[in-house]
Every structure is written in C-alpha cells, then in structure tokens.
Amino acid sequence: MSEAQLVEALTAPHKLQYTYKRSVGPVMGRFFTALRDEGKILGVRREDGSVMCPPKEYDPDTAAAISEMVEVGPGGEVVSWAWVSEPRAKQPCDRPFAYALIKLDGADTPLLHAIDCGREDAIRTGMRVTAKLADERVGHITDIRCFEPEA
Amino acid sequence: MADEKGPVEIVQTPVELDYTYTAGQAATRFLKGVEQGKFLGQRCPVDGLVYVASRGSSPKHGVPTGPDTVEVSDKGTLISFSIVRIPSANLSVEPPFAAISVLLDGADSHLMHVLDECPLEEVRMGMRVEAVWLPKDQWTASMQNVTHFRPTGEPDAPFDSYKDHL
Ligand SMILES: [Zn+2]
Predict the structure, then answer these.
(1) B contact set with A (CB within 8 A)
(2) Is A16 within 8 Å of B89 when comparing Cβ atoms?
(3) Does B22 contact A19 at a Cβ distance shorter than 8 Å?
(4) Which residue from A104, A101, A99 is spatially nearest to A52, judged by alpha carbons?
C-alpha cells in the first residue's frame, strides 16, 4: 500500500469489564461477616495450632477441614512490600502506597493489603502497621481501608 | 450493626481494564465509510473474496487486501443467529433479542449485529435483512450509526446462496 493511502487511525476509549461475583464459602464467609459486623479480623487455626490469615477451609498440609476461627491483628508486621508510585483508579489508595504482605499479630501467614504511609522511604520490612477500617463496611476486603504505620 | 444482614456469602470482584483502542488502517477505513453511511470492504488479491470489515489482510492467504475499497450493500442475508436471554451489565439492548450474523450483499465475510422489528420465533437462517441507520445528522465513525437490522420482507435467500459462507 502506498503512503498516500494511509489514513489517520481512529482511536476510542474501550473499557473491558467482567462483573465477577465469587462465592466465599463458610470460612471466608465468617471472615467477611466478622469484618463487616464487628470490625474484627479472623484467622483460622490449623491442626498444628498455627493460625492462617487470610483463613482457608482446608489445612494446606493435611487437607483436613478446618474451621476454628480466632481473632488476629489489628496490628502486624510487614513481611514484604512493593511500592506503587502511580496508583490506578480502582486501587485502594489515591496517592502512592505500598502493596504489602502483613503478618498480623496472632497469625503465622501474611495477608496481602495496602499500606498508606505517604512516602516510599517510610516503609521497611519488619515495620509495625495497624489496620484502618472503612467507615462503611459491606463485607469485602476493602472493609479494611488500608494499613498505616503504628503510632 | 447489621444482624439482619445475614452472613456474607458472595463478594463482588469486578475486573476492569481501561484501554485506548486504536482501530488501525483497515478498521479506520471501514469506520470512515460507516460515517458516510456506507459499508466498505477490501478484496483479497488471490481469490477475490470481499472482506467487510477487512482487517487489512486475507485470513486465508496472509496477504494484504486491497488496496482499493469495495462498497457493499447495507442489505444482506441472515446466516446465523442466537437468541440472547441473559441480561448482562453494559448490554445496550434489552434481552431477549436476536444477535445475528449478516452476509451483506457483495461481501464474503459476515457482520455481527442485532435484529429487531421481528418476532423472535420468526428469526431464521436465510432471512433477508437490512441495516436501519440513525438519522444522518447523528452519524459518527461508529457502528452505532446502525441501530439494528430488520427484515426486508423479501423471500428468503436459498441455502445454496450462502452455504459456502457458514
Ligand atoms: Zn485470500
């Protein structure tokens, strides 16, 4: 095709959306219900006595059904993190923040959530953080608005 | 708070991706035609088949189509359809409706669109249909210029006339 025939290509915004719903099951169901109604974060106790948060329905080693819920947090320790310098519209903070793995007090596994601490140099592995709950809670992980450095 | 809310059983986990779609040369040419109320295609130089809308190359031969554009009719034959009964977010048409494949007269590839002005139980392969356009002053470079297709009332096209395009 010769160059003279080239046209200026049209562009348009294109939004791709999948409106997924997820059944949470009995254990995650209790996690979300306690978070919504009582503002509590629950983990689940495994057969060996350790506590997983986020909770699972089955023990990852023995595959035994587990359902004993225990309260964990709201404080915890940063296990790992990644700085998000340009947050996107649907991300949990509208200013730069960290996605982090946070091991809550009383839990033996870390929870993935956002830490709102303003600047990248304000976060480090091993730092203490605490959960800030959303004002209006609906039964979703965003009922924890974010974590913040412990005062 | 909320004993009456009941336990949480479902969470909404929408996925949303914001793109800027660039139509590229081939689709831009097609849409510029639609802006003028025309369906433009391009011919494969190997077998002469007319693709509407052309993606710029022949899927069969892997060579560029064109360079000339070919105008085809805004009437055609319904060659396949599906009755959509399940509502979904962002659907601009109220279910139930017929999603159809139209083989436009003069084209060898089909377009997907919506059939209206026709009872669902009468939708059938071979039905002759035509594009219904928005008023001309509302035309843009978008397939939304065509609100839907509707039956023309002509006798059905014989199966042999479109069997090679299914
Ligand atoms: Zn070809």
Answers:
(1) 1-3, 5, 7-25, 27-29, 31-32, 64, 66-67, 88-90, 141-142
(2) no
(3) no
(4) A104
d(CA A52, CA A68): 11
> Taking Cα atoms as reference points, which of B137, B104, B102 lies closest to residue B118?
B102
SS3 assignment, position B50: strand
Give the DSSP H or E segment for A114: strand A111-115
Residue A105, amino acid = D
Min distance A10 CA to chain B CA atoms (Å): 5
End-to-end CA distance of chain A: 66
- The amino acid sitting at A62 is T
Residue B151 identity (one-letter amino acid): P
Tokens of A123: 């976060």
Report domain extents, chain B: 23-72, 73-166
Distances from the Cα of A119 to the Cα of A83, A90, A122, B91, angstroms: 9, 20, 5, 42
Give the integer Cα–Cα distance in Å for A81 and A101.
6
Give backbone dihedrals phi and psi of A117, rounded to 5 degrees, phi first.
-130, 10
Kindly provide the b/e burial profile for residues B19-57, where b requires at least 16 CB atoms within 10 angstroms of the residue's own CB. eeeebebbbbbbbbbbeeeebbbbbbeeeebbbbbbebb
Q: For each of chain B's 166 residues, which pLDDT tens digit applies?
A: 445 689 999 999 988 888 999 999 999 999 999 999 999 999 999 999 999 988 999 999 999 998 889 999 999 999 999 999 998 877 788 999 999 999 999 999 999 999 999 999 999 999 999 999 999 999 999 999 999 999 999 999 999 999 999 9
Instruction: Report the predicted TM-score, pTM, of the whole model to 2 decimal places.
Output: 0.70
